[in-house]
Amino acid sequence: MITCMSKEMELHAKRLGELGNLTRLSIFRVLVKAGRKGVAVGDVQKILDIPGSTLSHHISRMVNAGLVEQRRESRTLYCLPLMDAVKETADFLLSECCSGNIVPK
């Protein structure tokens, strides 16, 4: 049992929690496939065939978790995946891989 949650653990738990939702994971995969150029919100909506309000809710949660950023160009809003954040979380999970250091019960 974890008795002390560090800020770092809280951040990674939040990121993993957001990606643990099927809709948000689907959105994030669309963004990752597009790369650093991002995807217009309207295009994400068409690709995944979800209502705009639902998409907005899920994107907002990922923005708040630091997984996605948004950029406006004229009248178009683009979403971009923050791959450094995903890499940080993956590195956090793997940081003590195979170290043999386990906490006794």
TrEMBL record:
Keyword annotations: DNA-binding, Transcription, Transcription regulation
PROSITE patterns linked to this entry: HTH_ARSR_2
InterPro entries xref list: ArsR-like_HTH, HTH_ArsR_DNA-bd_dom, Metal_resp_trans_reg, WH-like_DNA-bd_sf, WH_DNA-bd_sf
Domain named HTH arsR-type: residues: 4-101
Position of the signal peptide: none
Pfam families noted in UniProt: HTH_20
Gene3D superfamilies assigned: Winged helix-like DNA-binding domain superfamily/Winged helix DNA-binding domain
Single GO molecular function: DNA-binding transcription factor activity
Record-given protein name: HTH arsR-type domain-containing protein
Source species taxonomy: Bacteria, Pseudomonadati, Thermodesulfobacteriota, Desulfovibrionia, Desulfovibrionales
